[in-house]
Design goal:
The protein is α/β, with parallel strands linked by helices. It has helices at 3-9, 57-65, 78-88, 102-114, 135-145, 161-169, 186-191, 197-208; strands spanning 70-72, 94-98, 123-127, 150-154. The radius of gyration is 19 Å and the shape is globular.
Length: 212
């Protein structure tokens, strides 16, 4: 998508019109593959949800086997969490979820310190919170980014370009987008906050194209 197309499409993705994925259809183009099995992606395009009913040990194994990104749930029992951390921490597509507390940071830092037999441990960390652009969280992001074992850092969720830019400037390497993205979302129902997700993603992506 070039800059000209981005500017033209902003007429649709404006403050008056907000759309989600179920509001649009993709237009089929001329295919170049003889079979769907021939499709190949150079990088993950699926990030599993860090919910306790979704990404546990079993799904993590399957997701990683298919070269996609598993975001492990922080609400599971400690034995499951640290089993996953021990087994998968070195995997490029494995993300370990934590909350926005100093206790979670200290627990991970302690675990890394206890792995004396393993050198150069690195972990992808996902800060699993509903609102990722807060002053407290920016301090938490900075703590993780200062640690040599923090390979990648995924922000809490944002829904605007300003929020995305703030978490990026705080050191996040990956930005999680989606606050109240659909009518069935609990966040939207309970708080009245939300932005349709396709609009949020488009606005954030298009503005980031102009960053140096």
């Amino acid at each position: 998508m070039n800059n000209t197309t981005l500017r033209e499409n902003k007429q649709l993705f404006n403050s008056q019109v907000s759309i989600s994925t179920d509001d649009v259809l993709l237009v089929p183009q001329t295919g170049c593959l003889s079979h769907r099995k021939d499709a190949n992606f150079d990088s993950p395009f699926i990030y599993s949800s860090p919910m306790d009913t979704v990404t546990g040990l079993s799904l993590t194994e399957k997701v990683l086997q298919n070269n996609q990104a598993a975001v492990f749930c922080r609400f599971l029992d400690d034995d499951q969490k640290y089993k996953a951390l021990s087994k998968y921490h070195s995997k490029e597509n494995f993300w370990f979820s934590v909350g926005a507390s100093l206790e979670d940071f200290e627990a991970i830092n302690l675990w890394v310190g206890l792995q004396k037999k393993k050198k150069n441990i690195t972990i992808n960390i996902s800060i699993d919170v509903a609102h990722g652009d807060t002053l407290d969280l920016h301090r938490i992001y900075a703590l993780y980014r200062k640690r040599p074992w923090c390979r990648g850092l995924m922000s809490g969720t944002v829904a605007t370009y300003k929020g995305a830019k703030n978490v990026y400037n705080s050191g996040c390497t990956h930005i999680r987008v989606g606050i109240g993205p659909g009518s069935a979302c609990t966040t939207r129902i309970v708080t009245g906050c939300g932005v349709p997700n396709l609009t949020a993603i488009f606005n954030i992506y298009s503005e980031f194209q102009y960053l140096d």
